[in-house]
Design goal:
binds zinc ion; binds 5'-O-[(R)-(carboxyoxy)(hydroxy)phosphoryl]adenosine; 11 helices; five-stranded mixed β-sheet; single chain; 2 domains; Nucleotidyltransferase, domain 5; alpha/beta; 20% strand
C-alpha cells in the first residue's frame, strides 16, 4: 500500500509518498524559515500563511517525484498535533478534503510519535525491535518514552521548562548567532573546548525529567560578565568555548537520563529523534556511551531527524494496519 504523508506542524510544509511504511518514494519539504529569521523565532501567522500557499504545490511535487497519482494512494496520514494551531489546520483541512473527494481513508498521527518512527525508514529490515526507549529532542519538546508497539507508547519523563532545541535557540540568541541556534552552535562548538567552562543543568525531582532553563541563564550571566568593549563584544574564542561547553553539558544530561531510562525498563535499544538528533556530536557521544553499556542506539538520517512527512506516512501506515481509523470529524490535538 502507498501512503501519502502530510506534515505542517511548525514552519515546514511537507508531503511524502511511502511504500509499505518503510520505503520512501518521495519526501518534499518546503520551509518558511528564512522569513522568520529576523524575528529570532517562528511567527505562527507567517508560518500558516506560507503553508496555505505551499501545500498544493508540495503535494503535487511529492506525487511527481514518486511517479505516483492520487489513485495509487491507499491512505492519507496527516500530523494532527501537537504543533502550531493555524499550521496544523492547513495540513489537516487539506488531508480531509483530499480524503472526502477521492474516497481515501485519512488518519491523524501525533507529531512526537512520528519522530520516534523516523528510525524505521530507509533501513530495510534492520529496524529497532520493541520494546525500546525513545528520546525525542526538538524545538518544542524533550521527552523520554517507553515504546512497546506502534500504539503502545508511554511517557517516562519530559522537560519541566525549556526544550533542548529551545535552549540551543536561546543560547544562540545570547551569543548573537541568529536563529535557529542548533546548527550554528554545533558548528562553533567544533572549534571550542567542551571542558573549558563548567555549566550545569538543574536537578529535577523526578529522575527522568529535564530542565534546561537554568543552563540558559548561566550562559547569559557568563556571557555578560565576559563581554568587553563599548560595543559589548564577546571574544570569538570565548564564544566557541561557551558553545562547546553548553552543548556538551546538555548532551551529557540527555545521554545520562536516556541510559537511566533504558536501565529502568531493562531494554537494550534506544531510539533518538527530533531536530536536535541531527547534531553529529550528540550522535557520536550517545552511540559511544551507550555502546559501553551494551545498548544499541538508532538515529534517523539528518533529513529524517528534522520535520518531514515521510515519518508521518510511516507511522500512519502501521497504525492503520493495527486497526486505527479516523473520519472527517478528525480535529487538531494540541498536546
Ligand atoms: O524537530 P524540529 O525540526 O522541529 C520541532 O518539532 O520543534 O526541531 C527544531 C529544533 C530547533 O530548536 C533547532 O535549533 C534544533 O532542533 N536543531 C539542532 C540542530 N539542528 C536543529 N539542535 C542542535 N544541533 C543541531 N545540529
Ligand atoms: Zn518536530
Amino acid at each position: 500500500m502507498y501512503t501519502l504523508g502530510i506534515e505542517t506542524s511548525c514552519d515546514e510544509t511537507s508531503a511524502s509518498v511511502v511504500y509499505k511504511g518503510r520505503e520512501i518514494l518521495s519526501n518534499v519539504v518546503a520551509t518558511s524559515l528564512p522569513l522568520h529569521k529576523e524575528y529570532g523565532g517562528i511567527i505562527p501567522e507567517i508560518a500558516s500563511r506560507m503553508q496555505l500557499e505551499a501545500i498544493t504545490p508540495v503535494v503535487s511535487s511529492a506525487f511527481r517525484s514518486a511517479k505516483k497519482r492520487i489513485g495509487d494512494i491507499g491512505l492519507i496520514s496527516v500530523t494532527s498535533g501537537p504543533g502550531l494551531l493555524g499550521s496544523l489546520i492547513v495540513g489537516l483541512s487539506f488531508a480531509k478534503a483530499l480524503s472526502a473527494s477521492q474516497a481515501i481513508p485519512v488518519l491523524g498521527v501525533n507529531h512526537l510519535y512520528s519522530h520516534i518512527f523516523a528510525s524505521f525508514l530507509g533501513r530495510g529490515e534492520k529496524v529497532p525491535r520493541f520494546p525500546f526507549v525513545a528520546l525525542i529532542v526538538s524545538g518544542g519538546h524533550t521527552n523520554l518514552f517507553y515504546v512497546q508497539g506502534f500504539d503502545r507508547i508511554s511517557l517516562l519523563g519530559k522537560t519541566l521548562d525549556d526544550a533542548a532545541g529551545e535552549a540551543f535557540d536561546k543560547v544562540a540568541k545570547i551569543l548573537g548567532l541568529g536563529y535557529p541556534g542548533g546548527p550554528v552552535i554545533e558548528r562553533l562548538a567544533q572549534e571550542g573546548d567542551p571542558h573549558s567552562i563548567l555549566f550545569n543543568c538543574s536537578r529535577t525531582q523526578a529522575p527522568l525529567d529535564f530542565s534546561f532553563s537554568g543552563i540558559k541563564t548561566a550562559v547569559l550571566y557568563y556571557a555578560r560578565s565576559h563581554t568587553k568593549g563599548e560595543k559589548g563584544m564577546l571574544r570569538r574564542s570565548l564564544r566557541k568555548n561557551i558553545a562547546a561547553s553548553f552543548q556538551e553539558t546538555v548532551f551529557r544530561v540527555l545521554i545520562e537520563k536516556s541510559l537511566a531510562a533504558c536501565r529502568m525498563k531493562g531494554v537494550k535499544t534506544l531510539v533518538v529523534g527530533g531536530g536536535v538528533a541531527s547534531n553529529k556530536t550528540l550522535r557520536n557521544l550517545c552511540i559511544g556511551t551507550l555502546r559501553r553499556s551494551g545498548i544499541r542506539v538508532f538515529f534517523p538520517s539528518q533529513p529524517l531527524s528534522v520535520d518531514n512527512a515521510a515519518m508521518v506516512a510511516s507511522l500512519g501506515y502501521y497504525l492503520y494496519k493495527n486497526g486505527h481509523r479516523d473520519n472527517l470529524y478528525l480535529n487538531v490535538g494540541l498536546d
